[in-house]
Automatic annotation (TrEMBL):
<dbReference type="GO" id="GO:0005886">
    <property type="term" value="C:plasma membrane"/>
</dbReference>
<dbReference type="InterPro" id="IPR003439">
    <property type="entry name" value="ABC_transporter-like_ATP-bd"/>
</dbReference>
<dbReference type="InterPro" id="IPR027417">
    <property type="entry name" value="P-loop_NTPase"/>
</dbReference>
<protein>
    <submittedName>
        <fullName>Iron complex transport system ATP-binding protein</fullName>
    </submittedName>
</protein>
<feature type="domain" description="ABC transporter">
    <location>
        <begin position="12"/>
        <end position="249"/>
    </location>
</feature>
<keyword id="KW-0813">Transport</keyword>
<dbReference type="InterPro" id="IPR051535">
    <property type="entry name" value="Siderophore_ABC-ATPase"/>
</dbReference>
<dbReference type="Pfam" id="PF00005">
    <property type="entry name" value="ABC_tran"/>
</dbReference>
<dbReference type="InterPro" id="IPR017871">
    <property type="entry name" value="ABC_transporter-like_CS"/>
</dbReference>
<dbReference type="GO" id="GO:0006826">
    <property type="term" value="P:iron ion transport"/>
</dbReference>
<keyword id="KW-0547">Nucleotide-binding</keyword>
<keyword id="KW-0408">Iron</keyword>
<keyword id="KW-1003">Cell membrane</keyword>
<dbReference type="GO" id="GO:0016887">
    <property type="term" value="F:ATP hydrolysis activity"/>
</dbReference>
<dbReference type="InterPro" id="IPR003593">
    <property type="entry name" value="AAA+_ATPase"/>
</dbReference>
<keyword id="KW-0406">Ion transport</keyword>
<keyword id="KW-0410">Iron transport</keyword>
């Protein structure tokens, strides 16, 4: 990750993109900008297009309309796969490590765009791998087989592999799923540090709306493939937006002590007011 915070030239901008599976357009006219040093949370119900939008930004699923350009003017469609992998990395939900691979080996795999096709030199590789292991708290587990780790530890190894890739843009699809509370908070701390200290631009899908409010500079709300709100957490995480988007009453309160946003979906078991 870059050492100079808030580099001006590393963002990515998607403008009015459509993304389709076959003839089925599932993301429509979506615009999103990820900026250096900023965390953008993508929220919305299941199936609203969050994963598909992230995949489109990494060209794993190319848009069928609209444009995706980097801040230096490069067009996503015109770049080689290797060039893209040097700019942007995606931690997706589906992951499985090949048998017998150690933590370090999986993290080293993240260096692939920096090596030549024949496995050539990568002078910055060892330092990047060491830093990724450190940031994710995995240095002591580096020689363990990934398959011998808990689900939460393995999740951190995949994140470390993305960090070793050393891109200025990082996309995370539900990185806290399956993690216990401590590691959820630690992963989000890492995300915040990457933005604040290393100038990384982060796009992260989160289901926990309070976590989204706490970690993100901007929040993007998706509903049925469309971006229906985009702005500061306070602007987007309103009772009206969330109740409409999720189809259930959602109360929102501001903690008077620290100004934090708290949300709660209201069911029969918890129908007292949120204060
Ligand atoms: P989210 O991440 O918000 O849960 P997704 O991006 O996974 O939403 O899905 C958006 C829409 O695209 C959904 O209607 C989903 O059923 C559909 N979809 C996702 N993956 C595929 C696929 N591989 N083939 C066809 N449709 C898909």
């Amino acid at each position: 990750m870059p050492d100079v915070p808030h580099r001006a030239d590393t963002g990515v901008h998607a403008r009015e993109i459509d993304v389709a599976y076959g003839r089925d357009v599932v993301v429509r006219s979506a615009s999103v900008s990820l900026r250096a040093g900023s965390v953008t949370a993508l929220i919305g119900p299941n199936g609203s297009g969050k994963s598909t939008l992230l995949r489109a930004l990494a060209r794993l699923h190319p848009p069928v309309a609209g444009s995706v350009t980097f801040a230096d003017g490069a067009d996503l469609r015109a770049l080689s796969g290797k060039d893209i992998a040097k700019r942007i990395t995606l931690l997706s939900q589906q992951r499985s490590a090949p048998g017998g691979v150690s933590v370090r080996e999986l993290v080293e795999f993240g260096r692939h765009p920096h090596r030549s096709r024949w496995g050539g030199r990568d002078p910055e590789g060892p330092a990047a791998v060491a830093r990724a292991l450190e940031l994710t708290g995995l240095a002591a587990l580096a020689d363990r087989p990934v398959q011998a780790l808990s689900g939460g530890q393995a999740q951190r190894v995949w994140l470390a592999s993305c960090l070793a890739q050393d891109t200025a843009l990082l996309l995370l699809d539900e990185p806290t799923t399956f993690l216990d509370l401590r590691y959820q908070v630690e992963i989000l701390d890492v995300v915040r540090d990457l933005a604040d200290r290393h100038g990384v631009g982060v796009g992260v899908v989160l289901h926990d709306l309070d976590q989204a409010a706490a970690v993100a500079d901007r929040v993007l709300l998706l509903e049925a493939g469309r971006v229906t709100a985009d702005g500061s957490p306070a602007d987007v995480l309103t009772a009206e937006n969330l109740t409409r988007a999720y189809g259930i009453r959602v109360d929102v309160a501001l903690d008077p002590a620290d100004g934090r946003i708290h949300t709660r979906a209201v069911g029969r078991f918890n129908d007292t007011a949120l204060v």
